[in-house]
Design a protein that fits this description.
The protein has 359 residues and is of the alpha/beta class. The protein has 9 helices and 12 strands. It has 2 domains: 285 residues, Carbon-nitrogen hydrolase (Nitrilase/N-carbamoyl-D-aminoacid amidohydrolase, 4-Layer Sandwich), CATH 3.60.110.10; 51 residues, no CATH class.
């Protein structure tokens, strides 16, 4: 049996903060560099387009909103725009799969998102972070269960999570259960509150990526950004703010399905691309020891119920006998799926406790 073997790349670099076009220029250059070095897949950090909004961690929204709010919104990426087409074209021209971390602009809302683009320039997935973390909720909306998905590609079964989604045990288990082989773990930089909040440190969060690889028996591409001097100057007006948000913070990693790091680390303040050779055939060796959603599970004792129904704020249910039961069915099939919502399930909670399969 043939298993895909290929070279993977992960970025460790600062964006051109709050400048979407310039950051896309930089992304295209990095894609071209990785492809020229033989990589068939490349991963970018969380919200690398147009940069992670660290200013939200430094002051009250009433103080930063006027300065950064509109600029951040205007420089977030909207799918279907010329900027998005440039990224898709770069993936196609360089015959490389791209996992891009972005602030997605949709209507008047923003979402922490990952866009996985195939080496033919076509979209594989556009997912959103289910729950923005802490102060991120002052900027971004939420995803839904449909974002906990894994997709078949020419490089195996791929999926992704953002930042502290890797600390959500049930979300991780949902991904493991779908036989994920290549995982995009998008992270920001790790230099905020340095020395005062160990949970936000590079050491702690790199460990989360390693554990994900070990638990899921999958390859993990975990790119991180860097806080450049320009970014610090832009966001920090006081000495206290400079002390809270230091430059650097790069901890990009690639881990194998046994948790082993597959490359030499870059210095935390150095931009670059890390590479690793991937052999999906080795996954079976790790899962032979422990497959947490397979032979190493105990569904009689613990079981996860995953609701992957896509939820939208407005669903048009106007009857249209000419086309279908719902006029939106062709474009938004998830809106009219027969999958029940929580609270609308045919089985009550007592029945579910006795028989989880009743849902």
């Amino acid at each position: 049996m043939d298993h895909p073997k290929f070279k993977a790349a992960a970025i460790q670099a600062a964006p051109v903060f709050l400048n979407l076009d310039a950051t896309i220029n930089k992304a295209v250059a990095l894609i071209e560099e990785a492809s020229s070095n033989g990589a068939e897949v490349i991963a970018f950090p969380e919200t690398w387009l147009p940069g992670y909004p660290w200013y939200a961690w430094l002051d009250a929204p009433a103080l930063w909103l006027a300065k950064f709010g509109q600029r951040y919104f205007d420089n977030s990426l909207e799918y279907g725009t010329p900027q998005a087409e440039r990224l898709a074209k770069a993936a196609k021209d360089n015959k490389i799969m791209v996992g891009m971390g972005l602030s997605e602009r949709n209507g008047s809302s923003l979402y922490i998102a990952q866009w996985i683009i195939g080496n033919d320039g076509k979209t594989i997935a556009q997912r959103r972070k289910l729950k923005p973390t802490h102060v991120e909720r002052t900027i971004y909306g939420e995803g839904d269960g449909s974002d906990l998905s894994v997709w078949d590609t020419n490089l195996g079964r791929v999926g992704g999570l953002c930042c502290w989604e890797h600390l959500q045990p049930l979300s991780k288990y949902a991904m493991y259960s779908q036989n994920e082989q290549l995982h995009f773990a998008a992270w920001p930089s790790f230099s905020i509150y340095e020395g005062g909040a160990y949970a936000l440190s590079g050491e702690a969060n790199v460990s989360a990526s390693r554990v994900y690889a070990l638990e899921g028996s999958c390859y993990v591409l975990a790119p991180t950004a860097i806080v450049s001097q320009e970014m610090q100057d832009e966001m920090c007006e006081t000495e206290l703010q400079k002390a809270l948000l230091k430059t650097g913070g790069g901890y990009s990693r690639i881990f194998g399905p046994d948790g082993k790091q597959l490359h030499e680390s870059l210095p935390t303040d150095q931009e670059g691309i890390i590479y690793a050779d991937i052999d999906l055939g080795t996954i079976s060796l790790s899962k032979a020891i422990a497959d947490p959603a397979g032979h190493y599970s105990r569904p009689d004792a613990t079981q996860l119920v995953l609701n992957k129904t896509s939820r939208r704020a407005v669903v048009d249910t106007t009857p249209d006998e000419q086309t279908s039961r719902y006029p939106d069915a062709a474009s938004h099939p998830d809106d009219v799926a027969e999958t029940p919502m929580w609270g609308a399930a045919s089985a009550d909670i007592d029945t579910l406790v006795k028989d989880p399969q009743a849902l």
